[in-house]
Amino acid sequence: MSEGFGKSVVQQIEEESGEQRQLQVVEAIARTGVQDPEAIAEYLSEFKATKELAQNQEEFSLRIKAIRRNLELTADERLEAGREAAEQARDRHAELSRELGRQADKRLSAATKTLFGGADSLTLNALADLDANQLDTRAEIARTSGDMDLLRAVRAVAAAKGFEDLVTKASALDEDNEISAAYQERLKLRSDSGLRAVSNAYAPPPIKAEQLQPSSAEVQRARNATESQKRSAERVMSGRPGITDR
Q: pLDDT digits over 36-47, tens only?
């Protein structure tokens, strides 16, 4: 059985559209040079603000379709309705993009606290003046002795000094699964390129005036519907209603 069996054409188009946007996010993140852009895109897709950005884009598309299909609107009314829809969608998009940033900052703060917080101040002071090689030795000592408090302090000092390779190593050596999770989350949130990619992918698309005009097929469907209603009314008034008129 094919994967699309039982789905309407509209459903399949919407799914393909969502997949295309997700691909755009992955490609935009990949262009920044970060590792594993697919994982970052998938992670960010679970944010509430990301889902609301997608919803805002979809609602804007539906509003434009409704304007185009409304044959009672004049050309000026169409332009005004389109302008209003675009303005509201852009304002909502800007608001949700800021909210996405706030949600990301909150998660990053929590991950950073888990990853680097809680180290003893005396241990931190003792490690503060060590270079990368010396800190690496302390990380090995911590691993061998099972001293996770020392490992946490090594990780904090390494981060402060910009020794990211050592931060990675000290995180991997930690026995606490929460440390591994916090490290992965920090890795995905350290660059704002992912957030920009999400925001850009779900931005309301620009709309031209001609896109607000109904197609010939839509005009014909509306005429057919009007004619059908007229014939139905005539049958009812003449006492010859059909099944669909009752």
A: 889 888 999 999
Structural domain containing residue 91: 9-204
Contact 65, 215 (CB under 8 A): no
Q: Can you read off the two tokens belonging to residue 104? A: 């990301």
Per the CB < 8 A criterion, the answer to whether 29 and 194 are in contact is yes
Instruction: Write out the two tokens for 74.
Output: 């004049």
192, pLDDT greater than 50: yes
How far, CA to CA in Å, does 243 sit from each of 182, 221, 239? 65, 21, 13
Q: Which pairs from 131-140 meet CB under 8 Å and 24+ separation?
A: 132/158, 132/161, 132/163, 132/165, 132/166, 135/161, 135/163, 135/166, 136/166, 136/169, 139/166, 139/169, 139/170, 139/173
Residue 15: C-alpha distances to residues 5, 10, 110, 151 (Å): 13, 9, 33, 46
Quick check: 127 and 154 in contact, CB under 8 A?
Answer: yes
Average pLDDT over every residue of 72-87: 92
Which of helix, strand or coil describes residue 31? coil
Q: Are 116 and 225 in contact (CB under 8 A)?
A: no
Q: What is the pLDDT of residues 194-209, one digit of tens each?
A: 899 899 989 999 988 8
Residue type, 17: S
Give the number of domains in the chain: 1
The answer to whether the pTM exceeds 0.85 is no
